[in-house]
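Consider one such protein record:
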Amino acid sequence: MAAKAVTRITESLFAQVAQHAAASPRRRKNHNLHQESDLVQRFLNVLQPGTYVRPHRHRREQAGAGFECFVVLQGSVGLLVLNSAGEVLQRERLEASGEVRGVQLAEGLFHTLVALDADSVMFEIKQGPYEPLADKDFLAAFPLEGTLEAIEQERLWRSLFNGEHGDETGPAPEQSKSPHTSAPSA
């Protein structure tokens, strides 16, 4: 199927995809602007609070092709960069109306995302083609999607961003070093 000459990205598209995300057990939904075989993946990723994104990284055979770029178009999303032991190395609050609206991650960085507002919409770009069985390298210490442990982990990560709008580039104060990060003490 040939791509449209112009594909509009509209508020009504955001609302439509957000409705699907809210109804999904995963609490998120992609809207692809690319074909699976395209060399560059371009898509909207709509996240609702409560979605659990298991920490992962992207690797490709060609060096440097495992990058990922996020730009928040609506709402806000928390990004956590982790080391291979699951420790939080960096936190970023990405906001459509904020100072930091997006980031580009280098290949091989373990990361996860947390929806901080309902109907948060990100535009993502990463190297294709999409290969579902080889796309992600997960951190095994973290729970699988759909488990009670995953629900608790997502809540814990979201708490790292609650009420904080200042400098979020470092780990949370008094944060546990375990893969199943404990909430910072008040």
User: Anything to note?
Assistant: Residues 55 and 112 are 5 Å apart (CA to CA). The chain has a mean pLDDT of 87. The first helix runs from residue 11 to 23. The two ends are 55 Å apart (CA to CA).
